[in-house]
Write a structure and sequence with these properties.
Two copies of one chain form a homodimer. The first copy, chain A, is mainly α. Helix content of chain A is about 65%, strand content about 5%. In chain A, helix 2 packs across helix 4 (about 70-85) and helix 3 (about 60-65) packs across helix 4 (about 70-85). The first copy, chain A, is globular, with a radius of gyration of 20 Å. Chain A binds a DNA duplex through helix 4.
Chain lengths: ~160, ~160
DNA sequence: GGAATATTGTTTCATATGTAACTAATTCCG
DNA sequence: CGGAATTAGTTACATATGAAACAATATTCC
């Protein structure tokens, strides 16, 4: 028996924000477990490694923009990676506030171990979809992302 | 200049787990702000209210299954809602460990205020997509959810 | 019946996270 | 030039979160 005679219908299971959250968590958790279990990395540390591998000499602020992490999270992830010996801070010559961040050889080594595993995990995940469906999903997500936060344009 | 001669390609911006996470966060944050700003509710409290409105007399464990919250999170959300006067605990007659949870009139009242706002927010979000695209997105997400965690079947 | 086991829900504790305050360096602009 | 405002990044503090221990009740199975 419903508590109200004319309730507006809202089933959590069909509510997009909820579904997105649950799906994202399920996916992230699978992947995060891989980073953590095998390499002792948090998701944020992994993200920092990924963009630093892609753009050696990147600054912390830029990392934040690319990964959608706030500056405190970047600062902590960087500190952790440096302590683990995976990342190195090089003082910027033209702006003493910045550091240019680069992976150490050790960091690059584990990065290259992780990449194929991460891609394999992703591949297994999306293998449930045809190529066409994968492309369509990417397209719809882009549209949605733009609608959800028009200000920042990531993709 | 890439740091490695033959790096495996992984651009965060095209990596599905990352994109899902960013999208989900952007959407959740918009909605969470509404609950919090207007009604002082956390996302978890909102979820508990939603399933309790849908199924009066539900137990904490069932809430956890339906919302994908762990039992500690449910316990805390319930405690908060009770303190705010939005939820009521009725001892179960057949199992003294359980409570049957129901919204109070006050809780039902704000629930019915929130629902249209939440649905409007969702509608605005998905208005970037055609009806057909919305249906397609839902379908693809279901497939993906099944691939990501085949064990629990939510949808 | 009653000991062993499982389940429900809460509490405790250690860690993660976000906001705001802060330091240091740079840029803006009179 | 030189003070005001901005930016890069870190630190401090308060809160959120999750794992494990816990208490209370139910169930299983002999």
């Amino acid at each position: 028996m419903p508590q109200s005679p004319h309730p507006a219908p809202l089933r959590l299971a069909t509510f997009l924000p909820f579904r997105l959250s649950v799906l994202s968590n399920a996916v992230s958790q699978r992947i995060a477990e891989l980073y953590d279990r095998e390499f002792g990395l948090s998701i944020w540390q992994w993200r920092v490694m990924a963009v630093t591998a892609d753009t050696p000499g990147i600054s912390a602020t830029e990392i934040g923009q690319r990964t959608q992490m706030d500056k405190v999270a970047v600062s902590r992830a960087v500190a952790g990676l440096i302590e683990m010996g995976y990342l190195e801070r090089r003082p910027s010559t033209d702006d003493a506030r910045r550091s240019n961040l680069v992976l150490t050889p050790a960091g690059l080594g584990i990065y290259e171990l992780i990449v194929p595993l991460a891609l394999a995990e992703e591949a297994q995940l999306v293998s449930a979809l045809s190529d066409k469906e994968q492309a369509e999903l990417a397209r719809l997500m882009s549209k949605l992302a733009k609608a959800a936060s028009p200000e920042r344009d990531l993709w």
